[in-house]
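In response to the reviewer comment on reproducibility (Comment 2.3), we provide here a single inverse folding case reported in full, input and output, so that an independent group could reproduce the run without further information from us. The structure tokens appear first.
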């Protein structure tokens, strides 16, 4: 099929490249000329597993890039809209990009086409898009608006897109549902998975994915409700982790016990420094605002957000309790991205904590496998003031530091050479905001180890009241 994808961000670029891999003819449209030039020249603007392979496989063949939306609309049967939907000051989603794209599309419609929202948008957006297109005098018979929410996670976007648990198509006409069924047919009939060169199947994928056809309003709600539920699951376990700390229980054991109930499930039950990123914080707030507008006071979501903020404050308190005063302390920090596997720093809890620690007078040496360039861009002032510098490896970040903080759940941070780490640190103190290590293993390697929802562990053989430098603990 001929597909236009408007927006080449984390969602649009991944979805466009995956549609090309399914065998469709795709044109990705963006109004950022510099980004388009880079994409045409073979650069990959974001860190996503398998994306470089897909782009080089299809660039110039099944996948093109353009700034001309009208031309792309005319050449396509289906137009996906994946432009950003940032947050307004009142917490609602700002739909002005969606509206202006809809207006521009309406001027180019020259035969039956389906316009599909891929961005995360509040319920009723489909109706608004339809109204905007009709306002421009477009014949109601020559288009349909549908909602096809995307559930990919950054970092594993390509695999999530191609091996989803479910595909939701929200259509209010059978004609548009038929078009979207055709778009996803290579996945739902299983032919893509048998093709040579298909992206490798992840262990947990059950094939073929379930296709759910709903109304557009239900599809819009499915997306907001899914993200809010996952955020709630994380806040719930973070609250449980706080209780574990008070009573001396181990949150990992609690997670295993609770998550083994198949009605609950183990995924998204990892405690830490709270959720971040471009979706959960924005979507929980937006869903809260949508509910209010519809007359429902969704206070549960207020508490989800409250626990998430508190989780960062609790972690700061933990750093203080480990190091006593913070002014002038040198800290090694592992992680800048909002989670492992991505270079995205939007709403990153790691960056929030780094800013707070810098304000308290710490000096930081940070390392992240993918997000340092983006972090450097937003921390120019702190770099000039020599408050923060960036290292080439985890060991360089730890070198000479009073303590090491782990703030992002990168796989490589879970497999460090602990003896080497102990040697390079000034004091063997690790404060882990992502629970990447076993407390016993850290003790055995001589660390004082702080984590989330578990008791502090001390070096084996050293009484818990004595630190390596001989100082008595308060
Ligand atoms: C997406 C979704 O759109 C958002 O609703 C969801 O909550 C998160 O994922 P993302 O892909 O991360 O957003 O957005 P971003 O990386 O900001 O990319 C949006 C792209 O659209 C940019 O490349 C931007 O240049 C482009 N754009 C924006 C247009 O081409 N036209 C516009 O009018 C506005
Ligand atoms: C999320 C949704 O998972 C995805 O379905 C949707 O399309 C976009 O929003 P994403 O924001 O890319 O994806 O990342 P995700 O893996 O969901 O993590 C979000 C945040 O929650 C990260 O900060 C992560 O560190 C945190 N998290 C996740 C936890 O703290 N604990 C967990 O158990 C899982």
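Designed residues, in position order:
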């Amino acid at each position: 099929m001929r597909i236009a994808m408007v927006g080449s961000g984390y969602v649009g670029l991944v979805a466009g490249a995956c549609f090309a891999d399914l065998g469709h003819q795709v044109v990705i449209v963006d109004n950022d000329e510099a980004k388009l030039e880079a994409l045409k020249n073979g650069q990959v603007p974001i860190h996503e597993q398998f994306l470089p392979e897909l782009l080089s496989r299809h660039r110039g063949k099944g996948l093109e890039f353009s700034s001309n939306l009208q031309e792309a609309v005319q050449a396509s049967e289906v137009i996906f809209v994946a432009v950003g939907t940032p947050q307004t000051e009142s917490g609602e989603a700002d739909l002005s990009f969606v509206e202006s794209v809809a207006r521009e599309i309406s001027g180019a419609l020259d035969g039956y086409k389906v316009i599909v929202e891929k961005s995360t948008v509040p319920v009723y957006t489909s109706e608004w898009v339809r109204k905007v297109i009709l306002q421009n005098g477009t014949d109601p018979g020559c288009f349909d608006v549908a909602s096809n929410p995307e559930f990919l996670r950054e970092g594993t976007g390509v695999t999530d897109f191609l091996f989803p648990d479910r595909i939701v198509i929200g259509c209010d006409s059978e004609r548009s549902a038929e078009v979207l069924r055709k778009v996803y047919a290579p996945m739902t009939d299983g032919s893509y998975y048998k093709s040579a060169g298909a992206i490798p199947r992840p262990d947990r994928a059950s094939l073929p994915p379930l296709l759910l056809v709903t109304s557009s309003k239900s599809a819009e709600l499915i997306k907001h409700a899914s993200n809010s539920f996952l955020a709630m699951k994380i806040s719930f376990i973070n609250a449980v982790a706080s209780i574990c700390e008070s009573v001396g229980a181990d949150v990992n054991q609690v997670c295993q016990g609770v998550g083994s109930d198949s009605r609950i499930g183990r995924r998204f039950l990892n405690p830490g420094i709270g959720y971040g990123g471009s979706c959960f914080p924005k979507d929980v707030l937006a869903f809260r605002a949508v509910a209010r507008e519809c007359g429902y006071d969704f206070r549960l979501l207020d508490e989800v957000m409250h626990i998430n903020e508190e989780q960062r404050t609790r972690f700061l308190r933990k750093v203080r309790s480990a190091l006593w005063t913070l002014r002038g302390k040198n800290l090694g920090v592992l992680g800048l991205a909002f989670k492992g596997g991505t270079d995205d720093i939007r709403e990153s809890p790691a960056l929030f904590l780094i800013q707070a620690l810098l304000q308290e007078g710490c000096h930081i040496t940070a390392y992240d496998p993918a997000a340092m360039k983006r972090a450097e861009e937003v921390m120019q002032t702190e770099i000039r003031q020599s408050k923060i510098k960036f290292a080439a490896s985890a060991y360089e970040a730890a070198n000479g530091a009073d303590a090491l903080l782990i703030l992002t759940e990168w796989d490589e941070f879970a497999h460090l050479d602990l003896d080497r780490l102990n040697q390079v640190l000034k004091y063997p103190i690790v404060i882990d905001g992502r629970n990447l290590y076993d407390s016993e293993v850290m003790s055995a390697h001589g660390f004082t180890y702080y984590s989330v929802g578990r008791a502090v562990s001390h070096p084996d053989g050293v009484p818990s009241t004595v630190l390596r430098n001989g100082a008595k603990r308060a």
